Fold this sequence. Notes:
Blueprint: H1 2-18, E1 21-28, E2 38-40, E3 49-54, E4 57-65, E5 73-78, H2 79-85, E6 92-97
Parallel strand pairs: 1-5, 2-4
Antiparallel strand pairs: 1-6, 2-5, 3-4, 3-6
Amino acid sequence: MKIATICAAMLLLGSSLAxxxxxxxxxxxxxxxxxxxxxxxxxxxxxSRLRVSHGKLTIVCRVNDRGPFVRGRIIDVSTSAAxxxxxxxxxxVRVVIx
Length: 98
């Protein structure tokens, strides 16, 4: 029974890693409620929640827009999400999205 549990855990881990992306993130004055952590992504479904990590900081934001439309960037986060990730000073940072 332990082998079945380990195999199931490996399948779950593998499937979550298959959806992970890493690359550059920027921020924008996003649409949505003030203070809400939202983001723009090119292909993820509207309303889906993404875990975005930068260094030791991780947030969860909701996809409510399409973008970014700048080559080399994988996500745009709202201003409140950018504050939570500590990227207000730099503007563009490397992130991991799950």
